[in-house]
Each structure stands twice: as C-alpha cells, then as structure tokens.
Design goal:
Layout: E1 3-8, H1 17-24, H2 27-30, E2 33-37, H3 42-48, E3 53-57, H4 60-64, E4 70-76, E5 83-86, E6 98-103, H5 108-124, E7 135-140, H6 143-151, E8 157-160, H7 164-170, E9 174-178, E10 189-193, H8 195-200, H9 202-221, H10 223-233, H11 242-252, H12 262-276, H13 290-298
Parallel strand pairs: 1-2, 1-3, 6-7, 6-8
Antiparallel strand pairs: 3-10, 4-10, 5-8, 5-9
Helix pairs in contact: 1-9, 1-10, 9-13, 10-11
C-alpha cells in the first residue's frame, strides 16, 4: 500500500508544475508514495502537520524567525512569476494610481512580501510607491480575483502570475516588468518540510526528493507531457487551452531549478541577521540537501538542461 504524502502549493499555478507532474506521471507512485495536493497550507500547514511538504518562497526568513522549517530542494530561481500588468490605455508607469496585489487573507508576512515585490517593480521605472502616491488594494484570493476586478473596472494594474499575465497580455494589457528584472531573488522558491519530518520519516523525505528530481527532469525534457499535466491541474486556474499552457510553460520553465545555491542563500541569511540584529545561523542548519545530492547522484543526468 502506498504511503500518502500531502503536498501544498499556494495555488494550481503553472509555476509549480514539477510537483503536479510528480503525481500525474507516476514518479511518486514509483517510490511507493501517493501524492495529494492541498492548496494554500503553506509553512503554517507543515508546522501544524496538516501537510508533509510545502512549496513557496524565501522560507529562510521564517526559519530565522524560529519557524520549524527546512529546505530540501528548489523549485525556481525566481520567487514568483508575477508581472505588473496595466490595463489598455495606460502608456507609462507614471499613469498608475491604483494597483491590485494578491492577499487579503490575513497573512501579514505574505502581504508585506507582495508590497515589496511591487515596490521593486516600480523602482525599475524610478517610481516610489509612497512618494508617488500610488495606492494599493490587497485582493482576497489571488490572481484570478485580481483579474476579475480589473475586468470590472477596478484598479489600473495588478501583479499577475502565469497564466493570468498571459491572459492579460492577450487582452491588450501592457507589461511593466517582473521583480527579478530589478532584484533577483537570493533564495528563489523551494520545497520545505519540518525537522520532525526529517527525523521521523526520513525514508519518505528521501523517496519524495527522488521522485521530484525525476519529475523536474521530465518537465525539462518532455514539454508535451508537461502541457498535458498543466491542462489537467491548472485548468481552473486559467490554463484552459494548449496555447495558454504553452505560453505559461515558456514563461516559467526557464527558471525551474531543483538545486539551491547554498553560498548565495548563506549570504542572504547573514545579511538578514545583520539587519535584524539576530545571531548568524549557518545555512546548513536550514538547507538540507543530502537527499537531493543523493537523488542527483543516482540520476544519470542532472535536470538542469532543457530541450
């Protein structure tokens, strides 16, 4: 009988396709695991034991704040796929007055992160969120709800992830850039679990990572099969045609990374500790890559190339 593993992603977005592929194409099943997706559980979900693994951004900040979280592999060199999309008729960022961001669910850390993201995108255009008196509205839900509000005439622009940024572009919206064009992420996004999970269910962690490495390779080398999975898992998230699936893939796939740059992450952790006055913590206490290293060593080719 397969062991059930509960996996959280923020939403059924193409950004997280390697996890969907791990389930859909049987890579978890090969390892004796049955993957179950639970959207939105996040770091709080693994801390409570609601899920076993979660994918998301910059969890090293939560780790340094005392959260029981460890990173076991990467998802992307970017923290998100969010692009600032402005409605037709707005020709320059200087015309922006009211921008919609994801949030509104009571997660203050997440809302602060989206404000920082928007601030960094605006800085690309030499704009300051406060000084230039640009107002923001935190929309309950996420990109789908932002898009619905834009269509209802609310807001000048929104930070939208794939496929909603693609849908917006097809409707004549203008892109004013991605945060990574201004401030590349020191940590990217990753997959996390708790130290308790590693201590008590190490065999499951090892099997999960082994399956995930194979799924990442599949995503990089089998585009058609990955698009099939996207059409199954992300259809309710706007991926309702092969054209949209392919465009979303082309937007997020170049940044998928299963590995993590430990030295870059270490510098980010030391910088945050210095800024907050907290004692420095070695990156190895947060980043547990032994299972990833083992899986890559057993794999004939590393999942970094793309065909």
């Amino acid at each position: 009988m397969a062991t059930i593993v509960r996996i959280s992603t923020p939403r059924p977005a193409p950004f997280f396709a390697p996890l969907f592929v791990a389930i859909d194409k049987g890579f978890l099943a090969e390892q004796g695991l049955e993957g179950v997706i639970q959207y939105g559980a996040g770091l709080e979900g693994i801390a409570r034991g609601d899920v076993d693994f979660t994918a998301g951004m910059a969890a090293y900040k939560a780790f340094l704040a005392g959260k029981p979280v460890r990173q076991i592999c990467g998802v992307s060199s970017r923290e998100s796929s969010h692009v600032l999309m402005a409605r037709p008729g707005i020709e320059s960022p200087e015309q922006l007055a009211h921008i919609l961001i994801p949030g509104g669910g009571g997660n203050e850390d997440q809302e602060r992160r989206f404000i920082t993201e928007l601030t960094n995108i605006l800085a690309l255009h030499k704009l300051d969120l406060l000084q230039d008196e640009i107002t923001t509205r935190s929309v309950p839900g996420s990109h789908k709800e932002q898009w619905d509000m834009l269509n209802d005439g609310l807001g000048d622009a929104a930070t939208l992830g794939a496929p909603w940024s693609i849908i917006a572009a097809k409707a004549g919206y203008r892109s004013f850039g991605h945060e990574s064009n201004y401030a590349p992420s020191p940590s990217g996004s990753g997959i996390y679990c708790t130290p308790k999970m590693i201590a008590e269910r190490e065999d499951v962690v090892r099997a999960f990572v082994r399956a995930y490495v194979k799924a990442m390779r599949y995503c990089m080398t089998n585009v058609d099969g990955t698009l099939e999975t996207l059409l199954r898992y992300s259809r309710d998230w706007g991926v309702d045609s092969l054209d949209i699936a392919r465009a979303a893939y082309d937007e997020v796939a170049p940044y998928w990374r299963v590995q993590v740059e430990a030295d870059v992450l270490d510098r980010a952790m030391r910088k945050l500790c210095d800024e907050t006055g907290a004692p420095r913590v070695p990156v190895r206490e947060f980043l547990r890559t032994e299972y990833l290293d083992e899986a890559l060593a057993n794999d004939q080719r590393k999942p970094e190339g793309r065909t």
